Amino acid sequence: MTVTVRDFLPADAEAWVQVRRAALPYLVTTPEGVLSDLAASHPDRRFRLLVAEEDGELIGTAQVGIAHESPVPGQGFCNPYVRPDRLGRGAGSLLLRTAEDHLAASGATDVYSWVLDEPANRAFAAKRGYEPRRSAHFLHLDLAGGPLPPLPELPAGVALLSGADFEDDPRPLFEADAEVTADEPSDVTAEFSDYEDWLATTWRRPGFDHALTTVVTVGGEVAAFSAALTDGLTRYSSAMTGTRRAFRGRGLAKLAKNDSLHRSRAAGYTDAYTGNDTGNDPMLAVNRWFGYEVCATEVRHVRSIG
Question: Does residue 122 fall inside a structural domain?
Answer without folding.
Answer: no
